Amino acid sequence: METTTEFDEVTVSFPATSGYLALCRVNVTTMAGVNGFDVDALDDLRLAVTEGVNWLLHDEDGLGTVSIVVRARPGRVEFDAERRPPGPADDSIDDLAGAILGATVDEVEVAVDGERRTIKFVKTGAVDL
User: What is the DSSP letter of 20?
Assistant: First the structure.
């Protein structure tokens, strides 16, 4: 097996509505699957993406745009998402969503600044290539 330090990368932008959540999950799990993540890790990623994107869209007003960038290589997936404009200024994640993210990914960071709301997370795992 040959290993690489280069990432595969996919970028997607869509209107800030929950109807596009499946698009996010498919992109992340496809990238992870291609890079050898097992079924349990794919399930973890689906949950993490659901919680992360729901946090971006929690006001459900449909205004603005969400952009995601998924980077993957064997053993590592990075998910970066942002919403412009950010919606309400609350930058906290509720306790349940925080617990789910904490249990499913290795690193997570959320932020709200004047122009955007962001969430980033990293999932590492064994590779089944």
Answer: G
Q: Write down the residue that tokens 């079924």 correspond to.
A: 39
pTM of the model: 0.88
CA proximity to 119, closest of 51, 46, 29: 51
Q: Please state, in angstroms and rounded to a whole number, the distance separating the CA atoms of residues 61 and 57.
A: 8
Q: What is the pLDDT of residue 1?
A: 39
Per residue in 30-43, pLDDT tens?
Answer: 999 999 999 999 99
From the DSSP assignment, how many helices (H) and strands (E) are in the chain?
Answer: 3, 5
What per-residue confidence (pLDDT) applies to 59?
72
**Burial of 40: CB neighbours in 10 Å, binned 0-12, 13-18, 19+:** exposed
